[in-house]
Amino acid sequence: MMTKRSRVSRRIFLGGGIGVAGLASNLLALSADSKGAYASSAISNMLDITDISNNASAIAASFAGLPFMGTIDPKVNGFDPMAILTAFDVGKVSKLPSGQTLREYTFTAINKTILVAPDKPFAALAYNGLVPGPTLRATQGDHIRITFINRSDTAHSMHFNGIHAGSVDGLIESVAPGTQMVYEFDAQPFGLHLYQGFTLPLTTHMFKGLYGTFIVDPPQPRPQALELFMTLNGFVLASDGQNAKPGSSSATASSSKLSQDANNGPPDSNNVYAVNTVAYHFIKNPIAIPVNKLVRVYLVNVTEFDALNSFHVHGTLLNIYRTGTSLQPDETNNTIMLAPGQRAILEFSFKTAGQYMFHAYQGEYADLGYMGIFDVK
After folding, report:
1. Span 78-223: which CATH code?
2. Counting beta carbons within 10 angstroms of the beta carbon of residue 180, is it exposed (0 to 12), middle (13 to 18) or buried (19 or more)?
3. Residue 121, preceding bond cis, omega within 30 degrees?
4. Fold of domain 10-74+228-376
5. With 50 as the cut, is the pLDDT of residue 12 above it?
6. CA angle, corner 311, sides to 332 and 320, nearest 5?
7. For the chain, does the N or the C end have fewer beta carbons within 10 angstroms?
8. What pLDDT was estimated at residue 172?
9. pLDDT in tens, 76-98
10. Could you tell me the residue ranges of all domains in the chain?
11. Would you say the CATH fold of 78-223 matches that of 10-74+228-376?
């Protein structure tokens, strides 16, 4: 959810100008900005990448001068961004008396401090201990039953995109700590949908990690492909966040800094950007892709406080299916822009082995954690 601000954000200009200036010029502009202290090295590293011959580890090493490039053991957070790429939760499957497929899921909301970059803890709210929450998957027409248990310290609800009755929209009734609620609806239409916490004030729920994705497949499956799920997200670091214990279930101290009172208003600037929550994870751990293999990326943008985010890939073009509600691509490009809450299915392949970058086309976001590598073999 976007927070209203009277001023025009610098990011709006970055987003609006990328088609003219491109990523390199955005990084140059950032050299004068306090958040762009690493911009010059980012430009040189991105230019030098063409001199590295098919060596993913060397490419990762060339980015060592950027912030947040250390290693995070997935055991610290309790989840692995690489595993999130391919973790599709189909639920507990059974049949209703009518013959309709029933898929049952259980969600538990907890307070949890996670590391979004080395030595950068974030006081999160998490579904089932995950940020983003589980990636649900069903087929159009399936009946969905969600049992939501709230074990956090704040009242929450769950809101699902798609078509459903107002009684299960998540707005009318919040779930108090220590209680639970059941949501039921049919999965429709096919496409790529979000779910999120939806209790006021919104900035103390969704941007802290209460979001996830709900994939509804068409009745006739899409062509076979290597399927990957990517969430574009950003994080506001608390000034006292260094004192938080990563992986802990109690995050109230840092949470008080992230959820400011009504007089001060909510924070309005991200310090870290990522794909699947951990900055630069896919620079340090390139994603393996076979040559000529059809790849299908389910891409969602849940970045708060920014007018636009984007996805740009090197070395190929993307067939773009916005929201995934059509079986015909809306456009073919190597870059897609997404406003908060927007999503798209991307299909592509690589014709030649090598290492190919993907990143935000806004230099600021790339410089602060949102870059990755496809390692094509």
Report:
1. 2.60.40.420
2. middle
3. no
4. Immunoglobulin-like (2.60.40)
5. no
6. 25
7. C
8. 65
9. 999 999 999 999 999 999 999 99
10. 10-74+228-376, 78-223
11. yes
What secondary structure, in 3-state letters, does the chain show?
Answer: CCCCCCCCCHHHHHHHHHHHHHHHHHHHHHCCCHHHCCHHHHHHHHHHHHHCCCCHHHHHHHCCCCCCCCCCCHHHHCCCHHHHHCCEECCEEEECCCCCEEEEEEEEEEEEEEEEECCEEEEEEEECCECCCCEEEEECCCEEEEEEEECCCCCECCEECCCCCHHHCCCCCCECCCCEEEEEEECCCCEEEEEECCCCCHHHCHHHCCEEEEEEECCCCCCCCEEEEEEEEEECCCCCHHHCCCCCCCCHHHHHHHCCCCCCCCCCCCCEEEECCECCHHHHCCEEECCCCCEEEEEEECCCCCCCEEEEECCCCEEEEECCCCCCCCEEECEEEECCCCEEEEEECCCCCEEEEEECCCHHHHHCCCEEEEEEC
CA distance 180 to 151: 9
- Lookup: tokens for 221: 């499956």
How many other C-beta atoms are found inside a 10 Å radius of the C-beta of residue 19? 10
Query: Is the separation of the CB atoms in 27 and 363 below 8 Å?
Result: yes
Q: Which of 298, 288, 1 is nearest to 135 (CA)?
A: 298
| Distant-in-sequence, close-in-space partners of 2: CB < 8 Å, separation ≥ 6 | 304, 305, 307, 340
